[in-house]
Design brief:
elongated; mainly alpha; 7 helices; single chain
Length: 158
């Protein structure tokens, strides 16, 4: 009986868990779309592998509320991004800026791919050259190899 009552209370309280977000969304859907678009460019500092648009962490909700308030105050998206970077560092940007300190981050995978393909090309070329330079087997060597493969090797090696 108690478990059913507890379940009913929790069921009734569930919509209130995100009531602050839902109420804000109904006020101004255009503003809310801008908030979500801009939030998609900011990293959740708690989750770190999610944007604040995707995260339900308390800090992410606070950051979305800050973005919303700054947009209401008339600040541009770039001004808000600059503010967030100034306050939290460049780590808050979900996609880091392309500049000299992040070149390795942006172009490192491409560089590794090119180097890997180069190494593969050199190895295959050397292997092909070795195959072409390998001496051909004589008739006796072919016969001995065939007998060894068939298991009828006559030399008594085990």
């Amino acid at each position: 009986m108690h478990s059913k009552l507890l379940f009913l209370v929790l069921l009734l309280l569930m919509p209130l868990a995100h009531a602050d977000q839902a109420a804000i969304t109904k006020d101004d859907p255009v503003l809310e779309k801008r908030v979500m678009d801009l939030s998609a460019h900011l990293r959740c500092l708690v989750c770190q592998n999610q944007t604040i648009a995707d995260s339900n962490a308390e800090l992410a909700v606070d950051l979305k509320n800050q973005v919303r308030e700054k947009l209401r105050q008339g600040q541009s998206e770039q001004e808000i991004l600059d503010y967030m970077v100034k306050r939290y560092g460049e780590f808050v940007l979900f996609s880091p800026l392309v500049k000299s300190t992040t070149w390795l981050l942006w172009f490192g995978p491409l560089l590794l791919l090119v180097v890997g393909l180069g190494v593969l090309f050199v190895i295959l070329r050397q292997r092909r050259k070795m195959m072409q330079q390998a001496p051909a087997l004589s008739a006796d060597e072919h016969a001995r190899a065939a007998s060894l493969l068939s298991g009828k090797g006559g030399e008594g090696h085990s």
